[in-house]
Amino acid sequence: RLLQDKLQYEMRLQYMKHYFPINYKVQVQYEEVLRPSNITRLRNGTVSEAALRYLWFHVSSQAVLRIREVLPEKHPSWKYTQELCQLFDALGKEYSKYRQTDVEAVVADLVKLVHSTGAESRRKAVRPKALLDNCLKVMRMLYGAPCEW
């Protein structure tokens, strides 16, 4: 719930669009862009919800770190991204119980690619706001019922 509140549209717009130069983009790996269509395709491939949530956590936390890498400490969005990192760290305690052998091979491979540093050639430019938009959309897909507490 805290993460959903922190990812409100107004906050994403202010911190990830208005405080960045026009058309500013962050270089990320292709696997670090997780869209709802990717989740739908994986669901149709009979990947479990737990594995999809595991994937979402790793991709989203990595996306926040990518955004944070380009920010100087005095940037107006620094504190916002720091708070997001803290929320993902807290969520990481829940996902630390999982091992990559506990999830489907396709998800384990994607998580390995997200955390690999040798995939420099597989980069794409993405707006910071788009990364967080995708994070929220996928989170709502995967946690729709639990988030309605």
Describe the structure.
The protein has 149 residues and is mainly alpha-helical. It is 60% helix and 5% strand. The chain is built from seven helices and two strands. The chain has helices at 2-6, 9-18, 36-44, 49-69, 78-95, 105-115, 128-143, and strands spanning 26-29, 123-126. A two-stranded antiparallel sheet has the order 1-2. Helix 2 (9-18) runs antiparallel to helix 7 and helix 4 (49-69) runs parallel beside helix 6. The mean pLDDT is 87.
Please give a handful of descriptors for the protein shown:
mainly alpha; IL34 protein; 7 helices; globular; 60% helix; IL-34_sf; Growth Hormone, Chain: A; macrophage colony-stimulating factor receptor binding; IL-34; 5% strand; 149 residues
Largest sheet features: 2 strands, antiparallel
Q: Which topology does CATH recognise? A: Growth Hormone, Chain: A
Number of strands: 2
Low-confidence blocks of residues: none
Layout of strands and helices, then pairs:
Layout: H1 2-6, H2 9-18, E1 26-29, H3 36-44, H4 49-69, H5 78-95, H6 105-115, E2 123-126, H7 128-143
Antiparallel strand pairs: 1-2
Helix pairs in contact: 2-7, 4-5, 4-6, 4-7
Compact overview of the structure:
The protein has 149 residues and is mostly helical. The protein has a single domain, classed as Interleukin-34 (Growth Hormone, Chain: A), CATH 1.20.1250. The protein contains seven helices and two strands.
